[in-house]
Specification:
The chain is mainly β. It contains one helix and five strands; from the N terminus they run ββαβββ.
Amino acid sequence: MLADDARLVQSTYPVRTGAEVKMFFGIYAQYAPVRLAPAWLEGREVIAVYENLQSSKPSYLMWLEWKDGA
């Protein structure tokens, strides 16, 4: 469940909010298998995305940020 005030900011796409954020993560279910794993980078919580399921190195990272206690 995502809060209605959740926002997703990507460098190459418009800002997504609320249900659009949920839709973004649902996109992964439509494509070749990827593995998402919680990780830490420089003291920040991130999601490691593995497009090659056998790789020990993620393809890219998603940085998570919480503001105002949310």
